[in-house]
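Teaching note: in complex prediction, the entire set of molecules is handled at once rather than each chain in isolation. The prompt given to students was simply: 'Predict the structure of this complex.' The entities are:
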Amino acid sequence: MSAASARKITFQQAYNEALDEAMAADDSVFVLGEDVGDKEGGGTFKVTSGLSTKYGTSRVRTTPISEQAIIGTAVGAAVAGMRPVAEIMLMNFITLGLDQLVNHAAKLRYMSGGQTGVPLTVRTATGAGGGFGGQHSDMLEAWLAHVPGLKVVVPSSPADAKGLLLSSIFDDDPCVVIEHTQMYWSKGPAPEPGVRIPLGRAHIARPGRDISVIAYGRPVGEVLALADRLAGDGIEVEVVDLRTISPLDERTVLESVARTRRAVIVHEAVGQFGVGAEISARIGEELHGDLASPVVRVTSANTPVPFSPALESRYLYQIPDVESAIRKACQ
Amino acid sequence: MSAASARKITFQQAYNEALDEAMAADDSVFVLGEDVGDKEGGGTFKVTSGLSTKYGTSRVRTTPISEQAIIGTAVGAAVAGMRPVAEIMLMNFITLGLDQLVNHAAKLRYMSGGQTGVPLTVRTATGAGGGFGGQHSDMLEAWLAHVPGLKVVVPSSPADAKGLLLSSIFDDDPCVVIEHTQMYWSKGPAPEPGVRIPLGRAHIARPGRDISVIAYGRPVGEVLALADRLAGDGIEVEVVDLRTISPLDERTVLESVARTRRAVIVHEAVGQFGVGAEISARIGEELHGDLASPVVRVTSANTPVPFSPALESRYLYQIPDVESAIRKACQ
Amino acid sequence: MADSDRTSLLSVYRTAALIKAADEKLRGLLTSGELAVAYYSPRGQEVLAAATSAHLDAQDYLVTTYRGIHDQIAKGAPLDLLFAEIFGRVTGTCKGKGGPMHVTHPSTGVMVTTGIVGSGLPIAVGLATSSSIRGDGRVTVVCFGDGASNIGAFHEALNLAAVWKLPVVFVCQNNLYAESTRYADGTSAARIADRAVGYGIPGERVDGNDAAATLDVVGRAVARARAGEGPTLVEAVTYRFMGHYFGDPGAYMDADEYAAALARDPVPALRARLIADGVADEATLADIEAEATAKVEAAAAFAADSPLPGVAELTSDVYREAVYHEEVPA
Amino acid sequence: MADSDRTSLLSVYRTAALIKAADEKLRGLLTSGELAVAYYSPRGQEVLAAATSAHLDAQDYLVTTYRGIHDQIAKGAPLDLLFAEIFGRVTGTCKGKGGPMHVTHPSTGVMVTTGIVGSGLPIAVGLATSSSIRGDGRVTVVCFGDGASNIGAFHEALNLAAVWKLPVVFVCQNNLYAESTRYADGTSAARIADRAVGYGIPGERVDGNDAAATLDVVGRAVARARAGEGPTLVEAVTYRFMGHYFGDPGAYMDADEYAAALARDPVPALRARLIADGVADEATLADIEAEATAKVEAAAAFAADSPLPGVAELTSDVYREAVYHEEVPA
Ligand SMILES: Cc1ncc(C[n+]2csc(CCOP(=O)(O)OP(=O)(O)O)c2C)c(N)n1
Ligand SMILES: Cc1ncc(C[n+]2csc(CCOP(=O)(O)OP(=O)(O)O)c2C)c(N)n1
Ligand SMILES: [Mg+2]
Ligand SMILES: [Mg+2]
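The expected output is the structure of the full assembly:
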């Protein structure tokens, strides 16, 4: 989709470039959030670094610690026709702004009979593995995906990060982009400037005939590496990267599984009532009778995120479990 | 489970009696929420009526409009060993208190290494059909079920309402009881005093050999009526009432479907990434190969709740769709 | 009294009379059973709403609540469309999809009506932020109740508006009740206006039943906002003559307090004042009232004659463009 | 100076010295790489924490934040267990499952440590509510930062505590920074203590680097709470000598401001004062400091020698009783 180039960028750069390009292209784009200005260091994860210097503090607005007001301000500005990009430093803090996001951003277009869209983007970071414990690591994308009116995006590579954030900013509906704290400094090929990746479309990250592994975000890269290894053993894994969780690209998922007749779903969020449930359910419901083996979900444990690294590494989804599930299904 | 009696009570009475019995039995039980005192009329839905007169305003505390503080206060009091019962008037307002519920109530036992449990109960009401529009009608139980550490309860009859609320109050973990605004004045047999219904256990509300319909809350009664009708046509429907959404009683669900080999899931929440997805997924994953027909979900539309009654009635899950799904599966 | 003040007061009365007639009509329809919706009467708050919007143009922004028809009418939202929305008709401001708690009418600046207590304040801050960035000169007014002053969003919004010096006026319509909870049982501040101290902004308390005083206080706040001097917290003290919702008998309201408030009913008070001050005579006022009644009757008829939304409306407007996983249930 | 004041000041110094030694040890371990965790140093806030908890018994309740080790030590939480928790060991206060941001130690009254800014305040209100219902005479103290005073939970908690007259003291440790945002860029109030006006409660600002003044102000607030006179908002002004987190170079901090603050560093200031006032001599203070170092070394050794939690700890403590759908991933 996005043209690869020799240049490599980190996720942090990717998000930063997307914001920069969007702000350069359109005066209605502005950024707000805690510590986002250069005076404050350009954001906790440096994603907004340089922007206030380039575009001024009127368009790059450092806020107080006020998550409700941050999202609410984005809602109001979006209703007025701006394209605000609000940073909620960590996803667990989005719990404080869900009234604005769910009762307002997601519904104002509908409740106004189509008059006032809410073209805001919320960027937020999360993920386990950094030793931040129970209140700074949750993946809550399933909540947002349960809300009609929101779009939910989880990028798996720097190029996707840039292209999906650009699409989110210029989308006319509220989008939430979920970034991963442990991936900001990972690198990948940079896309050409301006390349947007369409929302609502999954991506066949690797074609394969034997089994479909459906993933998004961090596990995608690990699954691709696993697929390479398994190819050596003659197992051809098709990797479907959802990219957008909602609206879900059911068609791409079902077409893939219809071909391979086997599916494993991998995500970082806890399993119970997670995104994997919806995908597994749709596969089961739509491809009943065509499946050669049961769908398997591999997710993190059904617990809060523990602090001790000894436990945190066991909390996370285990790639060896993905491997066993694939081998078992392909036996 | 609960002994039926000649006495009939409404859901409103059932919840009220449970609170009354719990407060009489245990000094550590207290109630807080907006307008809950008798001076304020005993609650918007009158569930706390009479309690402040009987137990005093120290134990039945009317709060300001402060959902974060209501749930946060319950968290703190529960950490101190009390058994607070917090009323969040309507479930959409729980969006304002999710930080306290999810980042704190659900996790403090775990993050404290088991030292501080949080034996609070949140009672909240919701549901479409009352013409309250987009911000007062959402069923958000899937969110809470996605959070390890919380228990989530949705009663379908006055007897269950009473017995499940009693169990929730005396449970040592945080419980959310979801009441339905359109059911408060419906009647059903009253249980004997003190009868508790165990959490985490589903209930076979009607045994049947041909198909399992899995439901909870409002649809249960409608599905039971449908089952009666279908019995006339020789279709024997087994109705599984989940009662508790999380922890989910997977065993009862799977045993039922293993017997009937067919399943329809019905709930009021929107379908996408809803509770039905988890149930459908587990059935598909565990009973792959044993199913005689695909699992079907019947839910409300994937939209905000519209105001106009002309639309609201179409928004809701349609019992005729349940009937067609059953007939098709049993063909 | 300056001529402009006389004109303003008369114009406030014209608006207040329209609000009062609309409210009475709706309560009549609810009583007769011709209409069955959740309705939150603004009875008692008509003059306050009229005096507030008297300072605003159509391009200024308003954010209000479920108890908002007085604010919406005062801001200029067309009565026909308002009634049709309340009736759930496709001709309503929001095609019947929002309902009375969620009226939106951007061309008259009615940007958001929310059913969530206090949530309008951060949204108003966002509207004002857009004006601040664009330099479009618009002022945002957000109306909310005394009960709303106790919720977190109030605090975050006022702080942010103060730090950013935004062109927004926070108008607290203190009607002394939050549902059935009395002011002092939920609100720790002796006066809500005192809370402005915590944000370093002006806080003004005014008798919301006094048209001239309210015109004056809100006028100064709007002027400050327009001049780039930042936000103001206005507390307009009034009274809620009806129960919280239509059908609420209001048993928790004190009878003496109620009687005393009724003696200060702002609509007849303004009427009497206009006559006493020679601003208008009985005939002029009677004409204004008759005109109001006629408009209201026409709006009710328009609404009643309008069609309900068709089923395709159920799934439209969820997103700007339909996405294929959105399907009308069969 | 009364004898009791002398004893108090010396005891504050003993606690502050222990906090300072613990913090220095932890930063040393982080610098050397022997430890790798997110750590929020309380350097500069030692005396303030010690003076606050000087008024509390073990059964009084404390709620604090990620930047909380000073408060936890002052409240009496055992150093060995605190270090072990930070090291993620099973011998820690929370078996290593909470970590430094979530320390709980009920037997010394450390009830909740939260990583969510401002969320401790409503929880403290709940602890105080339980004391109010039970009449157990306990006082709850909740510590939070200046940045936290801008979040909704602050407002809701103060209002509710005021309306219910709860035995709680809100101690804002104003270190002038919220992460990298300077006080005035996020906080509209000239003084956070001014916000008390909006809740009709006393608000006191004190120099948090002044041990005697802080002892006095917090002492009065605790006494008010204990006497059933309701909550107090205390703003103790201090400074954050380290960056927000360990490793943050703090480039956004003004050098002159920093130097001026360092000249008022509370620990050496208290030390000098104790000697100047003849409360203690150099030898006594050196003993206290040596004792602190010894305790800290022992705690670090205890932590380093302790085992990590076993994998069964991953799934225990989610609920009181295990539920069967909880399974250890294979
Ligand atoms: C966050 C939230 N909590 C509770 C409610 C339920 N509720 C609706 S109106 C109301 C009272 C509001 O009182 P006030 O702010 O004084 O406004 P008034 O109704 O008097 O105009 C309450 C509690 C709500 N809509 N939103
Ligand atoms: C609700 C919330 N928003 C943002 C953060 C990220 N964060 C952690 S500490 C901090 C600054 C807090 O400043 P202050 O309250 O002054 O406390 P200090 O760190 O100075 O002790 C921020 C923004 C958070 N933990 N919680
Ligand atoms: Mg009110
Ligand atoms: Mg600070």
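Point out the following to students. Chain A touches chain C through 48 residues (CB under 8 Å). Residues A 34, 65, 67, 89, 93, 96; D 67, 115-117, 144-148, 175, 177-179, 240, 244 surround thiamine diphosphate (ligand 2) (CB under 6 Å).
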